Amino acid sequence: MRLPVDLVVEKRTEDYPKWLPAATSLAAVILAFIISGIILKLIGGDPVQVGKFFWSATFGSVATISDTLVKATPLILVGLACSVAFRMKLWNIGAEGQFYMGAFFASLVVLVPILPPDAPKPLILLAMAVMGMIGGAIWGFVPGFLKAKFAVSEIITTLMLNYVAILWNNFWIFDRWSEGGFQMTRLFERGYWLPRLADYAREYPTLSGITLHLGFVVALLAAVLVWWIFDRSRWGYEIKLIGDNPNAARYAGLNIARNIILVMMLSGALAGLAGMSEISGVVHRLQERISPQYGFTGIIIAWVAKLNPFAVILVSILFGALIVAGREIQPSGLAAMLQGIILFMVISSDVLLRYSIRLQRTTTPVTAGSDA
Amino acid sequence: MNLEIILHAGIATGTILLFATIGELLAERSGILNLGVEGMMLIGAMTGFSVSLATGNPWLGVLAAMIAGGILSILHAVVTINFQADQVVSGLSLTFLGTGLALVLGEGLTGQSPPLIPVVNIPVLSAIPFIGPIFFQEQSILVYVGYLLIPLVWYYIKYTRPGMHLRAVGEKPEAADTMGVSVYGLRYLYTIVGGCLAGLAGVTISLSVSPGWYSAQTTSGLGWIAIGLVIFAQWNPVRAVVGAYLFGALQRAILDLQGPAVILGFPNPLFANSNLGFFLKMTPYLLTIVALLIGSRAAMRQRIGAPAALGVPYIRGERGL
Questions:
Q1: Distance CA A266, CA A141 (A)
Q2: What confidence score (pLDDT) does residue A255 get?
Q3: What is the DSSP code string of A72-117?
Q4: Chain B residues with CB inside 8 Å of A156's CB?
Q5: In this complex, do B293 and A330 lie within 8 Å of one another by their Cβ atoms?
Q6: DSSP 3-state assignment of A183?
Q7: Out of A159, A347, A354, whose CB is closest to B79?
Q8: Does the ipTM surpass 0.90?
């Protein structure tokens, strides 16, 4: 028996409509939520209840929206970091380590100390941000250099350096900078904190308890900067060319080795800035687990956002919400699982960009024995 | 600090890496890079652990772990082979998915103690001085399975017809296709075999080498080290084995270095300040980078290296490489 319609799969010969990538990503995210709901149901959970909780814990009130945006802040920066590297097909999986190194270097300003807490605040924050970016950039430079000079796969080196960075941090917070034997440094003095909305609660009482900090604005500005690099600068064009067609780039006389190192350093610097923003804006000390795997989530964000810096902002807010809700939802791996499913759905949906799939009315029915 | 003990334990830890590395090596030889090893290992470790707990039979656990790893790898196969998605991203999402799924399903397994894979002596062989106590005494049966796997895989890839098909599919898929070898079929097969072996590697941890379920800490990056070892081994199974056992011994030596107060007549700084151990724990990761550097330089010099079609989707009718 034949269906009256055929499923026709054809390779696209012309460009897909502009709205399609966004539509497939959105559909993929929705589908991922549905699949996760089914898995949750299968293991005996209540997806509707979890869904309701998810909404009220993340976007339910001004305070929870602020929480969500606070979590989105490092994610935007890390997502941008990954987008920059991925644009050149450099697989920087080391944003997690670069984040930790950024936090460590920014802490040097406080703990060495490089600047006293009563130094001018803009100066302090600038110094911490620059140090954070330097820390991340160093951690991006090493794999970039090894890739450029010795063709060492950056996938593995960046990943290995994540573990090294976390262990390095642990040494300092367990040993040298440990406060009273606890696995954390002392609380930073207020002079080292990024300004928060809650700091203005005396003038505007509605802001009390709103922990959104200046880092969010920095992250938005970083997105604009990355957009400018990608879409408006010559360098961005070079990055894209090297990523899409390294041979053409080589013939065009582009210095690929130099660009690999520079892009890895920029990528690391953005992730390092995220580390700085997190310790100066949220944690206010260096400690263990300052990152609930932001670095890895950034990879997913970059991909779900299709490397578009403004889409990175939106996706980061969604994933920030996942982290906020994930802290209280049991079982604890649910958020991670959902992230994995989202990524899978998104990369699978890419097939729709390369192939057009449509239903076609069956024309001449094929009869048996008519093979010529 | 006893060399025999370190090597003995190193072989056991190395067996984990051995399974994972061989699995990844087979997948990569067919042209499929699967970065999901860590996720598949975690799923394997969790599944094997809980099945052994539920049934009381560790071998059912091993079987379930391999099936679980295999099933997870099918996702990667569908997405990369049929949908021609980027293998790096797909592999990464497999790791996220596997880790998340293992944590969700492994909830409540911590602290349980299921029956483990038995530890046995091999008669005769275990009596050989030095070699015997390291390789053939008090080792898990899975370790011996590892010994058998090594020559098998080596011979299979190098001398058998299916082994040649495997290499052809990874080096020149369009030629293999012309010869009537199913490129998609073999890539599916070896991706799944790789998944099964990663699952086996996972259950080797949770039911044998360091029994227990410690959520994501169970594997703590061993899956990634295995991927690094494939490059270090330049896709050669024998070199992969040497690398796996070396890294296994190293992991063990690191644990043991912290124990004694005096080493070779010198006071042990690690004993005086255990926080220095953080630097010691960096060594496997740093050495993986060094191993990669060595492997990559050798590959550049000898102009050998990754299978030519590694990471490249095959589309029949399109111009090949």
A1: 9
A2: 92
A3: HHHHHHHHHHHHHHHHTT-----HHHHHHHHHHHHHHHHHTTSS-T
A4: 224, 227-228, 231, 288-289, 292
A5: no
A6: coil
A7: A347
A8: no
